[in-house]
Amino acid sequence: MHHHIFTLLLILALSSAFTPPPPPQLNLVLPSDAVAILSFKHKADLNNKLLYIINERFDHCLWQGVKCAQGRVVHFILNSFSLRGIVAPNTLTNLDQLRVLSLRNNSLSGPIPDLSGLINLKTLLLDHNLFSGNFPLSILALNRVHILGLASNNLSGEIPLELNKLDRLKYLRLEFNHFNGTLPPLNQSSLTIFNVSGNDLTGAVPVTVTLSRFDISSFLFNPSLCGKILNKTCHSNASTLFNSPPSQVLVSPPLSVKKRTNKISVILAFVIGALVLVAAFLSVIACFKNRRRQQTEQSEAKVANFETQDPNGNESSNVMQNSSSELQNRHRKSGNLIFCNNETPFCNLDQLMGASAELLGRGTIGITYKAVMYNHVTVTVKRLDAGKTAITTGEAFERHMETVGALRHPNLVLVKGYSQASQEKLIVYEFQPNGSLFNLIYGSRSARAKPLHWTSCLKLAEDVALGLAYIHQASRLSHGNLKSSNILLGADFEARLTDYCLSILADSTSIDDLNYRGYKAPETRRSSHHATTYSDVFSFGILLLELLTGKPPSQHLSLGPNDIMDWVIAMRNDVEEDTRLKMLVELAGFCSSTSPEQRPSMRQVITMIQEIKETAVIDDNSEGISF
Prior knowledge:
By secondary structure, the protein is of the alpha/beta class. The chain has 3 domains: 28-234, Leucine-rich repeat, LRR (right-handed beta-alpha superhelix) (Alpha-Beta Horseshoe); 279-431, Phosphorylase Kinase, domain 1 (2-Layer Sandwich), CATH 3.30.200.20; 437-627, Transferase(Phosphotransferase), domain 1, CATH 1.10.510.10. 33% of the residues lie in helices and 15% in strands. The chain has 17 helices and 22 strands. The protein has helices spanning 2-17, 26-29, 32-44, 240-243, 257-301, 305-308, 324-332, 349-353, 394-405, 437-443, 454-475, 514-519, 533-549, 564-572, 579-591, 602-613, 615-621; strands at residues 66-69, 72-77, 84-86, 100-102, 107-111, 123-125, 130-134, 147-149, 154-158, 171-173, 178-181, 193-195, 200-204, 224-226, 337-339, 356-362, 366-372, 378-384, 415-420, 425-430, 487-489, 495-497. Strands 1-2-4-6-8-10-12 form a 7-stranded mixed sheet, with no helix packed on it. A 7-stranded parallel sheet has the order 3-5-7-9-11-13-14.
């Protein structure tokens, strides 16, 4: 019996000797900076992407994204780590020696915590996350900050006037949030990078020395912003009476009988005068309609001229003849030239059809001509192919063209007007003098010439991205047919999109072109799937690769994501070491992802392009921060 008890006690003693002790309290063993980072990871890394292991006292200085000086964390940079969760209070805010904090391009949500304790912070970048709430006022206490990026989040409320207290600010990005109210009169002399596009700001942009340095691209997609800097007049929405509180509205004393009589006389005189003007106006309209009725048969007979003219504008011998009954039928189906968005008429349909026409090209849904009027006005005319047009009713075509014709942006070719008859649909664009991007890439270069310099690629890509983003936001439509031949070059060689929003009119089932197929997103290559904003992003990625390589899409259809970088460098026939070129290639691959959900929006693309442009500035100002 005693023997068994002794054996049992021995087993218990031995088992207790090999049992590991309980984990020590972190704050008693680890440095405070390591505790702060592990506490941050606990709430912000729900996907467990950060592999932080403690082996030695200062092991945290070797962790991902951490840079130390004398054992203290001075840089904490976790860009694009797929972090998901919140930044809990009293975690990163305990890194009191931190100078650079960058958590860009993750999925962090919730409010931005109180950061006022980070008194040494110089760079704060929280762009491309899901942070919500008002502008974090604790940032205003960080008077050493010179780089502040909060773009592409869900922040709201007003941008505080106290932002002027950050007098060392060089970089301020607040675009694509939900900030409202007026823009404060920022006047930091050091501010060189600034953007508040894509918010809900209202009123006039303050005319300060600082804000006057920035052009309209820093204020885009704020429909209610106005003022001198934007060259947009501000209009009052209501009278002073309705803007005053009820207690301040003054009631006028009763008018005398004589004053009432005078007032009534004035009103009657005004009404009678207005009736006379209306009658005269109706008479003029009646006369105009009679005259147009006489001209319509002649103008309708010339609609087919664009089909029967050669590139030199000479009429061929087989001009189609139409009977009187056919002409009348075509007139009933809106055969007049309709100008879009209050565009000033520069000709009538008769004059347009009589213009000298030069064939420019044949596209997927029609033929394009250059037309020169009798008054030397030059326009581009697209004649839609009736056999490839999906929308056949006049009402649907007119509604669609009114929407498209209302779009106005520096990177879109202006739609001036349109015309339709029973078998003819014409779209009139402003003429672009410098040809297409396709011609720039392929037309004038020898076989040994190199592709465009990456800085030119970057500029053209930004122009295209701005035009696409405007279409997506202003109309909720998609371009649907983005390719280098549908990008024209303006007077200053800026890229301007054309043929936008016409894919809905087209029946593309008969198109068999490898390059055309190369631009199309995988989900839209079947005829039953229409173009979307996501498919536009895919086409943009393919276009960017075309710019960088000087090769058409048919030559990189089979490339995988891991092959793109090597292929681009090989096509450029040199060793490119510039970080910004590599970032452009990565952006192209990001946009041309197979899955639509993995592609960025065009507004995110704009932000990334602008960040590539600013990389040199950031590198100079952020003490070695890597983007």
